[in-house]
Amino acid sequence: MRGFDEFAAGKHSLDAANAVGKDMFPGHMGIVFTSVVPDQVEAEFTITNNHIAPNGFLHGGSVVALADTIAGYASAINLPKGASGFTTVELKTNYLGTAREGVVRGVGTPVHLGRSTQVWDVKILRRSDNKTIALFRCTNMILWPKT
After folding, report:
1. Strands of 32-37's sheet, edge to edge?
2. What's the rounded Cα separation, in Å, for the pair 21 and 114?
3. Which structural domains are found in the chain, ordered by start?
4. Which residue in 33, 53, 89, 123 has its CB near the most CB atoms, within 10 A?
């Protein structure tokens, strides 16, 4: 798992979580992890013009990027022993609100942690008033070494 090897191998501190994606997509999006424990992963970003759609509201892709990043890191630290990685096989987002400024945060919790799949729910909220912006569900397939 490119970038995730040390992080997934039990060194999943906040510093490690933030370092893993610093020069990749999470860093580009300004995503910062605030809590990384096996049963709950949290991250956030401060809205910039790069997160806004031409209609002036938070771009839906920004929301999905935050949620999918949280679900991915959560899967990485919850891989079954011997697994070689994971890949997203399904994701769904229900948008309930939006934001134009401030901080957007996400809280990911496991629904199912199996040997072949993991299912994660991520709630995306405005940090200023804790209002839910979106509900996200992601299914990740667990990958195993080829024998």
Report:
1. 32-37, 40-46, 103-113, 117-126, 132-143, 85-95
2. 25
3. 5-143 (3.10.129.10)
4. 33
